[in-house]
Design goal:
Elements: H1 2-53, E1 56-58, E2 64-66, H2 74-85, H3 87-120, H4 126-138, H5 141-152, H6 157-164, H7 179-203, H8 208-216, H9 221-232, H10 234-250, H11 253-258, H12 268-277, H13 283-307
Helix pairs in contact: 1-13, 2-13, 3-4, 3-7, 3-10, 4-7, 10-13, 12-13
Protein backbone atom coordinates (compact mmCIF):
# COMPACT_ATOMS: atom_id res chain seq x y z
CA UNK A 1 0.00 0.00 0.00
CA UNK A 2 2.80 2.39 0.88
CA UNK A 3 4.53 1.71 -2.44
CA UNK A 4 1.32 2.46 -4.34
CA UNK A 5 0.94 5.84 -2.59
CA UNK A 6 4.59 6.69 -3.31
CA UNK A 7 4.13 5.82 -6.98
CA UNK A 8 1.03 8.01 -7.21
CA UNK A 9 2.87 10.95 -5.57
CA UNK A 10 5.86 10.50 -7.86
CA UNK A 11 3.64 10.62 -10.95
CA UNK A 12 1.86 13.75 -9.69
CA UNK A 13 5.09 15.67 -9.06
CA UNK A 14 6.06 16.12 -12.74
CA UNK A 15 2.52 17.28 -13.49
CA UNK A 16 2.62 19.85 -10.70
CA UNK A 17 6.04 21.00 -11.84
CA UNK A 18 4.85 21.43 -15.42
CA UNK A 19 1.80 23.36 -14.22
CA UNK A 20 4.00 25.59 -12.08
CA UNK A 21 6.39 26.25 -14.96
CA UNK A 22 3.49 26.96 -17.30
CA UNK A 23 1.87 29.37 -14.81
CA UNK A 24 5.18 31.15 -14.09
CA UNK A 25 5.86 31.50 -17.83
CA UNK A 26 2.42 33.04 -18.41
CA UNK A 27 2.97 35.41 -15.48
CA UNK A 28 6.35 36.55 -16.85
CA UNK A 29 4.92 37.07 -20.34
CA UNK A 30 1.99 39.11 -19.00
CA UNK A 31 4.26 41.27 -16.83
CA UNK A 32 6.67 41.93 -19.71
CA UNK A 33 4.01 42.48 -22.37
CA UNK A 34 3.25 46.07 -21.35
CA UNK A 35 6.92 47.07 -21.12
CA UNK A 36 7.76 45.52 -24.49
CA UNK A 37 4.68 47.06 -26.14
CA UNK A 38 5.53 50.46 -24.63
CA UNK A 39 9.12 50.22 -25.91
CA UNK A 40 8.04 49.17 -29.40
CA UNK A 41 5.39 51.87 -29.68
CA UNK A 42 6.95 54.83 -27.86
CA UNK A 43 10.61 54.33 -28.78
CA UNK A 44 10.98 52.14 -31.87
CA UNK A 45 7.80 53.41 -33.51
CA UNK A 46 8.36 57.09 -32.73
CA UNK A 47 12.01 57.06 -33.82
CA UNK A 48 11.29 55.07 -36.97
CA UNK A 49 8.51 57.49 -37.89
CA UNK A 50 10.85 60.44 -37.25
CA UNK A 51 13.41 58.99 -39.66
CA UNK A 52 10.71 58.62 -42.32
CA UNK A 53 9.50 62.20 -41.73
CA UNK A 54 13.03 63.48 -42.35
CA UNK A 55 12.62 62.59 -46.02
CA UNK A 56 9.08 63.88 -46.47
CA UNK A 57 7.47 67.23 -47.15
CA UNK A 58 4.36 68.73 -45.60
CA UNK A 59 1.35 69.37 -47.83
CA UNK A 60 -1.33 72.00 -47.36
CA UNK A 61 -4.01 69.39 -46.75
CA UNK A 62 -2.11 68.15 -43.67
CA UNK A 63 -0.59 65.08 -45.27
CA UNK A 64 3.04 64.20 -45.93
CA UNK A 65 4.55 63.04 -49.20
CA UNK A 66 7.96 61.61 -50.03
CA UNK A 67 10.69 63.85 -51.37
CA UNK A 68 12.37 62.65 -54.52
CA UNK A 69 15.12 63.56 -56.93
CA UNK A 70 17.07 66.69 -56.14
CA UNK A 71 14.68 67.53 -53.28
CA UNK A 72 15.34 64.27 -51.39
CA UNK A 73 17.64 66.01 -48.86
CA UNK A 74 15.65 69.25 -48.79
CA UNK A 75 15.00 69.11 -45.03
CA UNK A 76 18.71 68.73 -44.29
CA UNK A 77 19.56 71.58 -46.67
CA UNK A 78 17.12 73.70 -44.66
CA UNK A 79 19.20 72.99 -41.53
CA UNK A 80 22.41 74.22 -43.15
CA UNK A 81 20.66 77.30 -44.56
CA UNK A 82 19.43 78.21 -41.08
CA UNK A 83 22.91 77.69 -39.63
CA UNK A 84 24.35 80.01 -42.26
CA UNK A 85 21.73 82.75 -41.88
CA UNK A 86 21.41 82.62 -38.07
CA UNK A 87 24.95 81.83 -36.96
CA UNK A 88 24.73 83.57 -33.58
CA UNK A 89 21.59 81.65 -32.56
CA UNK A 90 23.11 78.29 -33.46
CA UNK A 91 26.37 79.16 -31.73
CA UNK A 92 24.40 80.03 -28.57
CA UNK A 93 22.41 76.78 -28.86
CA UNK A 94 25.54 74.63 -29.24
CA UNK A 95 27.34 76.36 -26.38
CA UNK A 96 24.30 75.97 -24.13
CA UNK A 97 24.07 72.26 -25.02
CA UNK A 98 27.79 71.67 -24.41
CA UNK A 99 27.47 73.41 -21.05
CA UNK A 100 25.13 70.66 -19.86
CA UNK A 101 27.73 68.07 -20.86
CA UNK A 102 30.31 69.84 -18.69
CA UNK A 103 27.86 70.25 -15.81
CA UNK A 104 26.73 66.60 -15.95
CA UNK A 105 30.13 64.93 -16.43
CA UNK A 106 32.55 67.20 -14.59
CA UNK A 107 30.41 68.72 -11.83
CA UNK A 108 27.46 66.48 -11.00
CA UNK A 109 29.28 63.15 -11.43
CA UNK A 110 32.29 63.97 -9.18
CA UNK A 111 30.00 65.38 -6.48
CA UNK A 112 27.82 62.27 -6.73
CA UNK A 113 30.89 60.04 -6.41
CA UNK A 114 31.93 61.77 -3.21
CA UNK A 115 28.51 61.55 -1.57
CA UNK A 116 27.99 57.98 -2.80
CA UNK A 117 31.18 56.93 -1.04
CA UNK A 118 30.05 58.89 2.00
CA UNK A 119 26.75 56.96 2.06
CA UNK A 120 28.43 53.65 1.19
CA UNK A 121 30.77 53.91 4.20
CA UNK A 122 27.75 54.69 6.41
CA UNK A 123 29.39 57.74 7.91
CA UNK A 124 27.61 60.06 10.32
CA UNK A 125 24.50 61.54 8.68
CA UNK A 126 24.62 59.23 5.65
CA UNK A 127 20.99 58.16 6.14
CA UNK A 128 19.82 61.78 6.14
CA UNK A 129 21.74 62.58 2.97
CA UNK A 130 20.41 59.44 1.32
CA UNK A 131 16.84 60.70 1.73
CA UNK A 132 17.76 64.22 0.60
CA UNK A 133 19.46 62.97 -2.56
CA UNK A 134 16.81 60.41 -3.44
CA UNK A 135 13.84 62.78 -3.23
CA UNK A 136 14.50 64.62 -6.55
CA UNK A 137 14.68 61.26 -8.33
CA UNK A 138 11.09 60.33 -7.48
CA UNK A 139 9.45 63.75 -7.86
CA UNK A 140 8.26 64.76 -11.38
CA UNK A 141 10.40 67.34 -13.15
CA UNK A 142 7.64 69.92 -13.46
CA UNK A 143 7.10 69.85 -9.68
CA UNK A 144 10.84 70.16 -9.05
CA UNK A 145 11.19 73.14 -11.38
CA UNK A 146 8.15 74.82 -9.81
CA UNK A 147 9.54 74.37 -6.29
CA UNK A 148 12.94 75.61 -7.44
CA UNK A 149 11.48 78.68 -9.17
CA UNK A 150 9.43 79.63 -6.12
CA UNK A 151 12.35 79.03 -3.75
CA UNK A 152 14.89 81.15 -5.63
CA UNK A 153 12.37 83.74 -6.85
CA UNK A 154 12.21 87.27 -5.56
CA UNK A 155 9.34 86.39 -3.19
CA UNK A 156 10.77 83.02 -2.22
CA UNK A 157 12.76 82.12 0.90
CA UNK A 158 16.14 82.73 -0.74
CA UNK A 159 15.05 86.04 -2.28
CA UNK A 160 13.53 87.30 0.96
CA UNK A 161 16.64 86.32 2.89
CA UNK A 162 18.84 88.27 0.50
CA UNK A 163 16.49 91.25 0.59
CA UNK A 164 16.64 91.21 4.39
CA UNK A 165 20.45 91.30 4.11
CA UNK A 166 20.23 94.38 1.90
CA UNK A 167 20.91 92.55 -1.38
CA UNK A 168 18.46 93.19 -4.21
CA UNK A 169 17.50 89.74 -5.45
CA UNK A 170 15.18 90.97 -8.23
CA UNK A 171 17.86 90.55 -10.89
CA UNK A 172 19.68 87.56 -9.46
CA UNK A 173 17.51 84.57 -10.27
CA UNK A 174 16.10 83.27 -13.55
CA UNK A 175 16.54 86.49 -15.51
CA UNK A 176 18.24 86.93 -18.87
CA UNK A 177 21.54 87.55 -17.13
CA UNK A 178 21.40 84.71 -14.60
CA UNK A 179 19.12 82.11 -16.21
CA UNK A 180 21.91 79.92 -17.55
CA UNK A 181 23.83 79.35 -14.33
CA UNK A 182 20.63 79.04 -12.28
CA UNK A 183 19.51 76.24 -14.61
CA UNK A 184 22.94 74.62 -14.21
CA UNK A 185 22.58 74.72 -10.43
CA UNK A 186 19.16 73.10 -10.73
CA UNK A 187 20.55 70.34 -12.96
CA UNK A 188 23.31 69.62 -10.45
CA UNK A 189 20.84 69.50 -7.56
CA UNK A 190 18.30 67.35 -9.44
CA UNK A 191 20.87 65.09 -11.09
CA UNK A 192 22.88 64.08 -8.03
CA UNK A 193 20.14 61.81 -6.69
CA UNK A 194 19.98 59.67 -9.85
CA UNK A 195 23.75 59.29 -9.97
CA UNK A 196 23.94 58.48 -6.26
CA UNK A 197 21.37 55.69 -6.63
CA UNK A 198 23.39 53.94 -9.34
CA UNK A 199 26.78 54.58 -7.76
CA UNK A 200 25.81 53.30 -4.32
CA UNK A 201 24.33 50.20 -5.97
CA UNK A 202 27.63 49.66 -7.78
CA UNK A 203 29.66 50.19 -4.62
CA UNK A 204 27.49 47.76 -2.66
CA UNK A 205 28.69 44.98 -4.99
CA UNK A 206 32.31 45.39 -3.90
CA UNK A 207 33.32 42.31 -1.87
CA UNK A 208 33.58 43.01 1.83
CA UNK A 209 36.79 40.98 1.98
CA UNK A 210 38.53 43.60 -0.17
CA UNK A 211 37.42 46.44 2.07
CA UNK A 212 38.30 44.55 5.24
CA UNK A 213 41.75 43.87 3.79
CA UNK A 214 42.22 47.59 3.21
CA UNK A 215 41.13 48.29 6.75
CA UNK A 216 43.58 45.73 8.17
CA UNK A 217 46.41 47.21 6.11
CA UNK A 218 45.61 50.67 7.43
CA UNK A 219 44.76 52.11 4.01
CA UNK A 220 43.42 55.68 4.35
CA UNK A 221 39.89 56.29 3.09
CA UNK A 222 41.18 58.63 0.38
CA UNK A 223 43.38 55.96 -1.22
CA UNK A 224 40.73 53.30 -0.73
CA UNK A 225 38.36 55.53 -2.67
CA UNK A 226 40.82 56.19 -5.51
CA UNK A 227 42.50 52.79 -5.85
CA UNK A 228 39.75 50.37 -4.84
CA UNK A 229 36.28 51.88 -5.10
CA UNK A 230 36.65 53.81 -8.36
CA UNK A 231 38.28 50.97 -10.36
CA UNK A 232 35.74 48.42 -9.09
CA UNK A 233 32.79 50.68 -9.95
CA UNK A 234 34.27 52.04 -13.17
CA UNK A 235 31.60 50.41 -15.35
CA UNK A 236 28.91 52.38 -13.50
CA UNK A 237 30.96 55.58 -13.60
CA UNK A 238 31.60 55.28 -17.34
CA UNK A 239 27.91 54.61 -17.97
CA UNK A 240 26.93 57.76 -16.07
CA UNK A 241 29.58 59.69 -17.99
CA UNK A 242 27.98 58.55 -21.25
CA UNK A 243 24.58 59.62 -19.91
CA UNK A 244 26.13 63.00 -19.18
CA UNK A 245 27.37 63.25 -22.76
CA UNK A 246 23.89 62.43 -24.00
CA UNK A 247 22.50 65.39 -22.05
CA UNK A 248 23.81 67.56 -24.90
CA UNK A 249 20.91 66.20 -26.94
CA UNK A 250 18.37 65.15 -24.30
CA UNK A 251 18.12 68.18 -21.99
CA UNK A 252 15.31 70.47 -23.12
CA UNK A 253 12.60 70.53 -20.44
CA UNK A 254 14.74 72.24 -17.80
CA UNK A 255 15.28 75.44 -19.85
CA UNK A 256 11.69 75.27 -21.06
CA UNK A 257 10.20 75.06 -17.56
CA UNK A 258 12.58 77.43 -15.79
CA UNK A 259 13.21 80.12 -18.42
CA UNK A 260 11.00 79.60 -21.49
CA UNK A 261 11.39 83.20 -22.70
CA UNK A 262 15.20 83.27 -22.41
CA UNK A 263 16.26 81.77 -25.74
CA UNK A 264 19.94 81.97 -24.84
CA UNK A 265 19.39 78.93 -22.60
CA UNK A 266 17.83 76.84 -25.34
CA UNK A 267 19.59 73.60 -26.17
CA UNK A 268 19.45 71.39 -29.25
CA UNK A 269 16.48 69.55 -27.74
CA UNK A 270 14.70 72.80 -26.86
CA UNK A 271 15.12 74.11 -30.41
CA UNK A 272 13.70 70.89 -31.84
CA UNK A 273 10.81 71.07 -29.37
CA UNK A 274 9.90 74.66 -30.28
CA UNK A 275 10.37 73.92 -34.00
CA UNK A 276 7.82 71.11 -33.70
CA UNK A 277 5.42 73.44 -31.86
CA UNK A 278 5.78 76.41 -34.21
CA UNK A 279 3.65 74.84 -36.93
CA UNK A 280 2.00 71.67 -38.05
CA UNK A 281 4.95 70.52 -40.18
CA UNK A 282 7.12 68.00 -38.32
CA UNK A 283 9.49 67.07 -41.15
CA UNK A 284 12.04 69.81 -40.37
CA UNK A 285 12.29 69.01 -36.60
CA UNK A 286 12.57 65.31 -37.46
CA UNK A 287 15.44 66.07 -39.83
CA UNK A 288 17.14 68.12 -37.09
CA UNK A 289 16.88 65.20 -34.67
CA UNK A 290 18.30 62.73 -37.19
CA UNK A 291 21.08 65.14 -38.17
CA UNK A 292 22.29 65.66 -34.60
CA UNK A 293 21.92 61.95 -33.81
CA UNK A 294 24.20 61.05 -36.72
CA UNK A 295 26.78 63.50 -35.37
CA UNK A 296 26.49 62.51 -31.71
CA UNK A 297 26.27 58.72 -32.00
CA UNK A 298 29.87 58.14 -33.26
CA UNK A 299 31.23 60.54 -30.64
CA UNK A 300 29.42 58.75 -27.81
CA UNK A 301 30.44 55.30 -29.06
CA UNK A 302 34.07 56.46 -29.33
CA UNK A 303 33.98 57.94 -25.84
CA UNK A 304 32.57 54.68 -24.51
CA UNK A 305 35.43 52.71 -26.07
CA UNK A 306 37.97 55.17 -24.67
CA UNK A 307 36.53 54.99 -21.16
CA UNK A 308 36.64 51.19 -21.21
CA UNK A 309 40.40 51.34 -21.68
CA UNK A 310 41.05 53.08 -18.37
CA UNK A 311 40.37 50.01 -16.24
CA UNK A 312 39.96 46.40 -17.26
CA UNK A 313 36.83 44.40 -16.70
CA UNK A 314 36.55 43.21 -13.10
CA UNK A 315 34.37 40.24 -12.19
CA UNK A 316 33.48 39.54 -8.57
Amino acid sequence: MTRIVENVNSTNRPRRRRRFLRASTIFIIVMLAYSVAHFLLMWVGVNFNSILLSFKTYNRDGSYSWLSGERFFENFEWIFRNIGTDTSNYRSMLLSSLAFFIVSCFVTLPISLFFSYFIFKKMLGSGFFKVIFFLPSIIPLIILTTIYSITVGNNGPVGQMLNAMGVNSANLFLTHESASWMIWIFCVWAGIGYDVILLTAGMSRIPRDVLESCKMDGTPSFWEFLRIVIPLTWSTISTLFIFGMMSVFTVFLQPFYLAPKVNTTWTIGTNIYFASKSGRALNAPAAMGLFYSLIGAPIIVGARGLLNKFFGEVSY
